[in-house]
Amino acid sequence: MKATIEVLPGDGIGPEVTAEGVRVLRAVASKFGHDFEFREGIIGGCSIDKTGTALPAEVASDCKQADAVLLGAVGGPKWDDPNANVRPEQGLFAIRKIMGLFANLRPVTCHPKLADASPLRPEIIKGVDLLVVRELIGGLYFGEKKREADKASDLLEYTGDEIRRVVRRAAEFARARRKKLTSVDKANVLETSRLWRRVTEEVVRKEFPDITLEHVLVDSCAMFLVRKPSVFDVIVTENMFGDILTDEASVLAGSMGLLPSASLGDGPRGLYEPIHGSAPDIAGKGIANPYATILSAAMLLRYSLGLEAEAAAVEKAVYGVVDRGVLTADIAPLGSSAVGTVQAGQAVVTAL
């Protein structure tokens, strides 16, 4: 297969971890006989410094033409003024909107080797295997915003079509897994959630009668994620709720450095990135965990390029090196030796 992959390293540890993701993708291409072309662009803080915008128009155009996009992270203290007119995260919002990426997938599994890295008891996280599907380009983050001297507002708005398309995607994933879909809302308070609940019911009843659907309020879901997370299969929810719940769910695995994500639209083209941030406190030290980025590259192979065997091979390689104790500082037991970013990436390539 021939494919073009746009690489957006971004800020902080982004360039370090994306370099390992690209290294693994090159190894996959060599092993399986593919031709991957990598093009690099800028986004986030580094783009603001260079162009005055968080996402240059030419980079956005390249992303729309590429088969897939691999992204590192954006932001850092240098650009952390909440009153600034241009902020790094605007680049993320823009690329998601421009590419029509309405469904953000965040799988959460707990490797037995890392049970002690989780703040929860091993018996609570045992058997956790869930997928959160977050609506990504609607809701509060994209609604009309107003601010006066002593008053501000953000509009939370959804249409039925925006809800249908993400619920449909989530139900498709549930059908391929354990056939259970949990829709998370705040229907006891919000009109948007009442619409969300009604539309979700219609989609599942008409198109996915084989799927078991349950509705859970967002506050209850937050509690269940730390009390009995293994009850969940696929969770679908709106933008802000999904943002918060997926960060909460990330602690189940012990570190954000282990969890990948995919952002998809109607077609195969998608954007893939680790769920962690730019971690400026460790940037340049060579100790960042690249496994989430490498697992994001595996999702890229699966969802955008349709290469299931290759994706499974990458995942097997990552889990294999973790099982053998090739651990970065964020997941290594106290007092044990940890490997660096490059060493972890090389271990995965060797395992491939």
What does this structure look like?
It is a single chain. With 352 residues, this protein is α/β, with parallel strands linked by helices. The chain has two domains: 1-102 and 256-352, Isopropylmalate Dehydrogenase, CATH 3.40.718; 119-253, Isopropylmalate Dehydrogenase (3-Layer(aba) Sandwich), CATH 3.40.718. It is 41% helix and 19% strand. The protein has helices spanning 14-32, 45-51, 57-65, 89-98, 122-125, 160-176, 191-207, 218-227, 239-250, 291-303, 308-323, 341-351, and strands at residues 2-10, 35-40, 68-73, 103-109, 129-135, 145-147, 152-154, 180-185, 212-217, 234-237, 260-264, 270-274. The longest helix is centred in the N-terminal third of the chain and has 19 residues, at 14-32.
Provide a brief overview of the structure.
This protein has 352 residues and is α/β, with parallel strands linked by helices. It has helices spanning 14-32, 45-51, 57-65, 89-98, 122-125, 160-176, 191-207, 218-227, 239-250, 291-303, 308-323, 341-351, and strands at 2-10, 35-40, 68-73, 103-109, 129-135, 145-147, 152-154, 180-185, 212-217, 234-237, 260-264, 270-274.
